[in-house]
Amino acid sequence: MRRSLMGLSAILLFGCQDKTLKKTNDEGQEAEKNNKIFTKLTAQTTGITFENRLVENDTLNYFTYPYIYMGGGVSAGDINNDGLTDLFFTGNMVSNRLYLNRGNLKFEDITIESGVEGDNRWYTGTTMADVNGDGLLDIYCLVAGQSGNKENQLFINKGDHTFEERSAEYGLNDAGNSVDATFFDFDNDGDLDVYVANYPITPFEYNSYHYKMRMDRVTDLETDNLYRNDGHQFTKITEPAGVKLYSLSLSVTASDLNGDGWTDLYVSNDFGTPDCMYLNQKDGTFKNEIKNATAHTSFYGMGADIADFNNDGFMDIVQMDMDAASNRRSKANMASMNPELFENIERVGFQYQFMQNSLQMNTGFSYKGVPKFKDISRLAGISSTDWSWAPLLADFDNDGFKDLFVSNGTRREINNKDYFESLKGEKKHKDSLLIKSLRIPSEPIDNFIFKNNGGLTFSKNNEKWGIVDKGFSNGAVYADLDNDGDLEIVTNNIDKVASIFQNHSSKENNYISLRFKGTKKNKNGIGTKVRLFHNARQQIQEVSLSRGFQSSVAPKLHFGLGQAKTIDSLIVTWPDRKKQKFTNITANSTLVLEYSAAKNNIEKRHPTDYLFQSYTDTLALYKHKENTYDDFKSEVLLPHKTSQFGPGLAVGDLNGDGLDDFYIGAASKYPGGMFFQKSDGSFEQQKLKILLEDRMYEDIGSLIFDADNDGDNDLYIVSGGNEFGPSSSMLKDRLYINQGNGNFIKSTRALPPISESGSRVYASDFDKDGDQDLFVGGRLIPGNYPYPASSYILENVSSSGRIQFINATERLAPSFRQMGLVTSAQWMDYDNDGWQDLAITGEWMKLRIFKNNKGIGFTEATETLGLEATRGWWFGLNADDIDGDGDMDLIAGNLGENYKYQASGSETFDVFLNDFDGNRTNDIVLSYYNEGEQYPVRGRECSSQQMPSIKKKFKNYDAFSKATLLDVYDEKKLENSIHYQISSFKSAIFLNEGGKFIRKDLPLEAQIAPSNQILVADFDSDGVKDIVLGGNLYASEVETPRADAGHGTFLKGMDNNAFKILPPTQTGLFMDGDVKDFAIINVQGRSYILVAKNKDFLKFISIRNSLVP
Known about the structure:
It is built from 20 helices and 71 strands. It is mostly beta strands.
């Protein structure tokens, strides 16, 4: 039965579907009654009976072929051009199956007559594409397996429901261990080339050095391959194209990632082999820019998809891993990162990888053609979906935002810790391997479906939407199988009939469907981009086939429109950059877009005058280096290193010439950097002997100020770190006195004898006696995290010719003893009484405010001012009249919400410090909430390294995985511990209103990373103050993915006391890396943000509008 679309013109075919199409099955009617989006259809209803059944035996089981559970794929496409999408499934140990769509979700199995059932090869992935340009979709099958014939197969469509295998003739009989392939036009010559992803059989015990060795000696059978279409023959050009590499490739996805009109590739790789982001160099070659484009990727990279999930016009990347959402499964069944594994990745130069899904948000910012991506999977709520395979980004509820489906499950729990612990020491006799394999625990789990909330977050919606189907799903696709304007979901399952979920969304929301009539050699318009505008919203999609895992979708595009009945405009960009524009298109229609009507487009790009220039000439060359120290050796359960808080930064005139100079701190064993500005705007580092002599100190904070009122600036440096003992002389701060013209001597008597691992220092004449006094924040007690450190008031009692600071803390502010882990403070007159008060905060601390009692002491006003419930991981603090009402407000930088550690309301994140096992050393216990219960954060292995008694109490991983916090630790000891509890990690503004500070959390985009430093100024010269945030946290323990998504946040001040976040595409602001501090510095009448990063170079960001007073 053939169907055709009703057309209005040769250019634009337009056919409305009847949205009241009668349902032909009871399942659909039941779903509508329950208001669920999806209904799972039975095999009896659809006629699809394919089941990827595995039968293990003595020679083929997990122990003889550990990749046995990777499953099969599914490809969707209209093989007979009748307007209905057909389905093809690959089988590992069963025949492939081809199902012809007969309409109304009824399918006919035409496998035998079509000739695509295959032979006894181990089929993995599949892609439908018009390989020979005849207008018919062909089927390419990928082959892997333990042994035997591994040549891929190409079934050419003959147009009569039959196919002919011709892979050798076309040169596509790749004999590698193939898993996935994508057809795309890499050289823009109009025909489809193909990239084949191969996964060579590799011992699981390999480490990064093994992978690097194999990369240096990769063979033709091991590498992925790129084949160029030379007519009816494909030519392997892997090596000259620059993509010859040893990698454990599980998926390849094609997209124009940097928007230059040339298709790029993202290859997701398993285990320690790093992913590849191949950017098209437009000359027949690719360059792997994964390290420049991303801050990290997933470790066990599985399937991937590319789409614009947040409707900002840029393509984002989602990648799967194997991180469980539940406490039980994560502690019993999941692999864990260990320090040696992580360090090996660093040593061989691979990109950083972490065991979680990645949602690489395209920032829209690029440098030298390389787009910048940041992983926001934790913020988005999709980081942990268990043993996941195929992610699919598509608008499943037709609301105009792309949702996320994830196929899930492994037939046997091959990471089950207890089972494989029980096998240790056993000899692997061949005749016992099958029994051992069959005894591996097995637990069917559900797939995941997430609703896009319309911003940067998703909500799991399985129950609400009707996706409940426990099992072991691998390959998956979406397709509008019944042409009713919404997307069905299809999965290829192990040991279970394929799942078909009918979608009913088109009854609630509108849509537009697009098909393409392309060029002679690319009839389906692969690589075409469509940008759609409606209701002040934009969407963009790109025609690409291979998505998710081992699977491919039909060459069509589907846009949900919500309640919009009309599309304002639709812009089509064909692969050769010809364009078409359509306006006022009626919703709920199917359009066929024809290349023949497109026109040449000459884009005029005007240079943008950005507010910031983030890549400028280096005015001062300096790289911070970090000394080697293992914080976790003695503090096993530290959440992050406490030895890598620097460098701090101080700006001021150090040599009396009226120009801004600066000092940047250094780690222990390295001298700090003092730089004087020269008249030509460059900076010269001062090689001072005293700085070299003091290089064993760890610099944290610093301050340029006039300590002795002699008219020139001196330098105070806060000593800190975790490397030294609690009373070490290396923790004493230092004061360098300016002798005039930038000559400094170290004062040995000006400071009181305090040994405290500090953070920052702030100056103010709090007692109005005409000199600068100091507040010095205590950051930690070395080796005793999170025991509260003491902070200090240093009163300046200098007299003529004698510089002297005394420790006045006990007299003025005794509550500063054991104040906490102070990170930041601000002198501010919050009550406008003319006296400088003090706001202080830190890690595990509240925002605390101390009222200045007219210079004779400080009284805490935290509770009175409404700040009692503000405990967080506060890293940055700034005081300013942000709302212009005449009093001082606070802007506070917290950990953010894009981190493994989460807190919300009553589901808090906690830390306990006590000697839990009675061995006279304090133990750290972190806890979190999962599914309503409070659990220890760390697993049995790590926890027992700190407290060996845990292994005795919990004999196996399964028992520990079910144990709550109170099951593991003594309740009385928990009650008597040093205990801090956090209910929010959001950065916020605290407005000073009516004697209280009112919390206003910053927008979600400001929560993607910690904010270590904050600037407030009218950067855009519109008369309203703006805010710049920056920071990251690279020093996390290895099982906690580092916070590295921060790239500088610009909050534009609005007239209504609100702030609007502007992306880097509008501002030009981009400061990534492990940003620890920054400050405004003026150079030749121009203002810059000077940025200091841990283990990185200094960065100067130019500001368009000068901030010079």
